[in-house]
Structure formats: C-alpha cells, structure tokens
Amino acid sequence: MTKPPFPASHLRLKRAYVPAEPEDGVRILIDRLWPRGVSKAKAALDDWMKEIAPSSGLRQWFGHDPARWAEFQRRYRSELRQHAEKLDHLRALAKAKTVTLVYSAHDEEHNDAVVLKDVLLQK
After folding, report:
1. In 40-74, which positions are buried (b, 16+ CB within 10 angstroms) versus exposed (e)?
2. CB count, 10 Å around CB of 21?
C-alpha cells in the first residue's frame, strides 16, 4: 500500500446541511449544483469547485442508486483524470491544513465526495 500524499486526517467530508465548525478548516463545495435551501452565509465556504463534480450526465444517470455505485465510481474516476491540476491543488491544501469537502447528497456512503476523497488519498 502506498503512503497517502498528505495525512488522511486532513481531508474530511461533510454534508452542506451540517453547520460549519472551525475544525472544518478550508471548506470547499464539490457539487455542480448549489445545495437547496442553504444560504451562502450558512454554507461558510472558502471555494466552490464545481469543475471537479461529476458531469451532469453522469450525475443524472447515477441518481444516487446504490446498484449503480460501482459503475459510477469507475466513470467518475475517469472524469477526474481530466482535472489533474484541480486535484493537485486540493492535495497541496491538504498537506498544509484540514480541508473539508462539502457535498449535498443525502446518502453519505454513495456520493461523489466519497470517490473524490479516495482519489485524493491515492497518488
């Protein structure tokens, strides 16, 4: 097993509907769409990286159906390869401080943030 490019504890996941906390460090929304019912002030975001979110077509195809999870992961990982510079930026941030990837999905186990975190920890 290879060593992660930064301490795993520096990368967190959090739903957009959970209040921000100082321990979140840098908060980055990683969804293509803004979370429904969440104001910009309440979101307390430092950045919005919608470019690294799954494409609209992939997001709609997946529809958060756990039966499509394995294929979603494969397709999303493929899309992420086109954003190496953004991924490197996130890794550099996580080397220096805590980064919280903010997402809006209800399913905390089958969503793009889970895949993105895994990709970021590999290198």
Report:
1. eeebebeebbeebbbeeebbeebeeeeeebeebbe
2. 11
Tokens of 68: 């499509």
Q: What is the pLDDT of residues 37-65, one digit of tens each?
A: 999 999 999 999 999 999 999 999 999 99
The 3-state DSSP class for residue 116 equals: helix
- Whether residue 70 contacts residue 76, with contact meaning beta carbons closer than 8 Å, is answered with no
**Residue 98, token pair as written in the block:** 């805590």
User: What is the tens place of the pLDDT at every residue in 93-114?
Assistant: 999 999 999 999 999 999 999 9
Q: What one-character-per-residue DSSP string does 30-94 give?
A: --SSPPTT--HHHHT-SEE-GGGSPPHHHHHHHTT-GGGHHHHHHHHHHHHGGGHHHHHHHHHHH
C-alpha separations of 37 from 21, 48, 100 in Å: 19, 16, 20
Rounded CA gap, 115 and 59, in Å?
13
